[in-house]
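Students often ask what a holo structure prediction actually looks like on paper. The answer is less mysterious than it sounds. You provide the chain, you provide the ligand, and the output is a string of discrete structure tokens encoding the 3D arrangement of the protein together with zinc ion.
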Amino acid sequence: MSAEHRWSGWPGAWCLDCGVEDALERCVAEHNDGLICECGVFMCEVPGHRLKPCETHRREPCPSPGARLFDPYNPVVGAKVST
Ligand SMILES: [Zn+2]
Ligand SMILES: [Zn+2]
Ligand SMILES: [Zn+2]
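The corresponding structure tokens follow.
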């Protein structure tokens, strides 16, 4: 089961399911650490490289994946809840 947040967009992203603010976005606003590659390059585009997770702004797992509680485009009415 995945506990990934579903981000509303960029910038100003929030999770469509639980409503939490995107920690990476706050990270970028404060010090950009979240966009630094594991190799140390800012916004590195080398395939296979990954961003180094910021210690200050961690993305916690989504507490209610698929809940759509904060989804303005697909309100929870009639939503199919996957188990
Ligand atoms: Zn950060
Ligand atoms: Zn890199
Ligand atoms: Zn979430």
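The two ends are 8 Å apart (CA to CA).
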